[in-house]
Write a structure and sequence with these properties.
mainly alpha, 100 residues, 1 helix
Length: 100
């Protein structure tokens, strides 16, 4: 007993088709987020490098200013000592003149 060909399968939704619009929209959104993140990371790295350069220059400037202020302070202290010596000498001279 041979049987004939089996009956055709029941009809369903048809052949498989990709959902282009739904999945493409999500993939595009993810791609957009990735691009935005990469852009922000690049901007952050550039800002960090600029801030580091600015900070290093600030440190150099501060060191130079401290050195200059130190020299100025030494000069002023030296001038003050000379003036105090002059005042003391003049006071002694005045006191000596008044006794005469």
């Amino acid at each position: 007993l041979q049987k004939g060909a089996p009956p055709p399968p029941p009809e369903t939704y048809g052949a498989y088709q990709k959902k282009h619009e739904g999945s493409t929209g999500v993939i595009e959104m993810i791609d957009l987020l990735v691009r935005e993140l990469e852009k922000e990371m690049t901007e952050a790295a550039t800002a960090e490098e600029h801030a580091q350069v600015t900070y290093e220059q600030f440190l150099v400037d501060a060191k130079d200013k401290r050195r200059q202020d130190s020299k100025t302070l030494e000069l002023k202290e030296s001038n003050k000592a000379h003036l105090e010596t002059d005042i003391a000498e003049q006071s002694d001279s005045k006191a000596g003149n008044e006794k005469e």
